Amino acid sequence: MVKRNNAVNSSPTNGGSYEAKIAEIETIISRIEGGELELADVFAEFATAVEYLKECDSFLQQRQEQVDLLIETLQDDN
After folding, report:
1. Residue 23 in contact with residue 65, Cβ under 8 Å?
2. How far is the C-alpha of 17 from the C-alpha of 10, rounded, in Å?
3. Is residue 72 part of a domain?
4. Looking at the 3D structure of the chain, how many domains does it have?
5. Structural domain includes residue 8
6. Residues 30-74: pLDDT tens digits?
7. Residue ranges making up the domain that contains 64
């Protein structure tokens, strides 16, 4: 049996899972596109979405580095 690491569900940066951050970004985009927000709120929500995107990008870069290291380790073993 292979034990799976729950890395995908770990915190991108400031808490919450990667998936939760993506869902929140999608919600923000829907509110902005739907015209539900005042202009000042659009800017605030947009800034939040950008911050979440940065956190998600950082999370994915870290995971890519881990994958690259694992691949390198496998290649060194051969």
Report:
1. no
2. 5
3. yes
4. 1
5. no
6. 999 999 899 999 999 999 999 999 999 999 999 999 999 999 999
7. 18-77
Taking the model in full, what pTM does it have? 0.73
CA 55 to chain centre: 6
As a three-state string, the secondary structure of the chain is: CCCCCCHHHCCCCCCCCHHHHHHHHHHHHHHHHCCCCCHHHHHHHHHHHHHHHHHHHHHHHHHHHHHHHHHHHHHHHC
Enter the DSSP assignment of 7. G
Question: Is residue 1 one of the residues assigned to a domain?
Answer: no
Asked whether residue 13 is domain-assigned, the answer is no
- Hey, what are 56's tokens? 């998600």
